[in-house]
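Researcher: I'd like a structural prediction for the single chain below. Treat it as a standalone chain; there are no partners to consider.
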Amino acid sequence: MNHLSRLLCLALLMFGGHLAAEPLRVGVSFAIPPYVISHEDRGIELDLMREAFAGSPHELQVVYLPLERTFRMLEEGKLDAIINVKPGMLESAYLSQPVITFHNRVFTLAPTAVHTMKDLQTLRVSAFQRARQILGTTFSDIVDQNPRYEEVARQEGQVQRLLLGRTDAVILEQRVFYYYLAQLLGDDQEDDRYPKDKVRQHDLFPPTHYHFAFREAGHRQWFDRQLAKMKADGRYERIFAAYGTTSTAGDKKASP
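Model: Treating it as a single chain, here is the predicted structure.
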């Protein structure tokens, strides 16, 4: 092999390796298990994204951030994709086909009850970030009149504050709430610190269908093709089953 041939081979190896490992920076919230379990670097949505891009020219780089920052960094070009987006939430992004359905509920401790959204106007309410945009204008108009309404990034603290009586109502996705409830209770079902038998669930909101958002149309097209294949061959449902639930489990408690 002559000198020129060796140089060509070296260049092909260098550029080939680069193309095979093109980074795809995915921003995810660090507080939504079982969808994202950051300390284990896994979860339903992470597994779906990784499975979709397995065998592609892209190497996923998961970036854990507060939800608000994921949106901002995607728009600034610092991320290539983010999860859990509804149409209208981003000005310039390519949305995938619907990926997952969330069931947002209101949780209280008995005897506090929530029959209508107006009941939230006088309670201490803790919700997930961007709840105003996601849960509709009726909800946002009501909570805008409540000075004790807050939106927080870390949901585990919301569940604990509710059980300790430090807030009156928590608004969370159903699987996320029951995941954290199980984590807090652990194996000691006799632990009297938390009144688990007083937890009440109130269904005020319709299901929310979420998409993944991509900065480039090609990434979105790849993901959509693979998502369709995963649903057709059963891999989609097997990922949910690995976390003790199904894609249609609207009223079932999730296992940790």
